[in-house]
Every structure is written in C-alpha cells, then in structure tokens.
Design a protein that fits this description.
Strand content: 15-25%
Oligomer: single chain
Radius of gyration: 18 Å
Order of helices and strands: HHEEEEEHH
Number of domains: 1
Largest sheet: 5 strands, antiparallel
Helix content: 25-40%
C-alpha cells in the first residue's frame, strides 16, 4: 500500500523493496548533481525526452504548459553566498521560473520543460546562457515568460 501521491518526490520513486537503499540513492544523486561536469542543459534532456513520449500519448491536440515564477526569500541567511538582491537591499533570495508540461486529458503534470534560477552569481538555466537584463530593471516577469516560451520547433511536445 502506498500512501503518497504518485507525483510525490523522494523515496516513493524507488521500486518496492528498495526503501532501505534510500540513503545510498540520495548520496549518489547528490554526488551526481554536485559534479561540475554535469550541466543544467544535460540534466533537463531526459525530462524533455520523457515529455516528448508522454505528449505523443495525449488524446488532445495540445498540451498545457504552466509558467510559474516564484520568489524564494531567505532574509538573514548570511551563510548563503549566492543570494540575489531582489526588490531592495534587505530583500534577498532567489527567483525561480519554471515551465511545466501538463496533460490536458487528466490535469496531471508530465514533466518540467525548463527551469531558470536567478542568483547573485547570475542566471542558472536549463536553456544555457540566459540574459538577465530584465532582472536588473525590476521584477521583469514578462521577459522571464518570454524566455520560458518555447519556439514551436524546439518544443518537446511538438508532434510534427
């Protein structure tokens, strides 16, 4: 019996009987993600490949893509060296933007298609180098949405 939602992250994703290996899986994941040779562009490829396959099985002639922008505030967190100044000198944290493919048949998430994280050191992005000019002139929400929008030819959900 599983009590967690199928969309829940963490040990629920491990095959039955392997919950005792969760620490090893967590440690291996951390080592992989902390490897400087692994780029964000490479990390998103399996998710985009999965989205292409999942989009092919959708009965609707379209797939929904939700664009989310979140401000992650960390006031008083002096130990974090990469906090970005957001709206004022006392407002520090990160800005996270994500494009999530959603199955129109059942409303369930398919996969994240892109992610961008603004830090003090610059923009981390699954798209590669992303302009941060919009972030310097205020919230720049419209510019971030434009950056997240897929060109028709690049969309993993494109069926042609």
């Amino acid at each position: 019996m599983r009590v967690a939602s199928p969309q829940a992250a963490g040990v629920i994703g491990l095959p039955d009987g392997n919950l005792g290996k969760s620490f090893a899986v967590t440690q291996a994941t951390w080592r992989f993600l902390n490897n400087d040779r692994v780029t964000f562009e490479e990390l998103i490829v399996p998710l985009q490949d999965f989205a292409r396959i999942a989009c092919a099985s959708v009965s609707a002639p379209f797939v929904l893509v939700a664009h989310d922008w979140s401000k992650l505030s960390y006031p008083g967190q002096k130990c974090r060296q990469d906090l970005a100044q957001l709206s004022s000198s006392s407002d520090v944290g990160y800005e996270l933007a994500c494009a999530l493919a959603i199955n129109p048949d059942d409303g369930l998430p398919i996969a994240p298609l892109e992610m961008h994280l603004k830090t003090a050191k610059g923009m981390l992005s699954t798209r590669g180098k992303v302009e941060v000019a919009a972030h310097r002139s205020g919230h720049g929400y419209d510019e971030r949405v434009r950056q997240l929008e897929f060109r028709q030819a690049d969309c993993p959900c494109n069926r042609s």
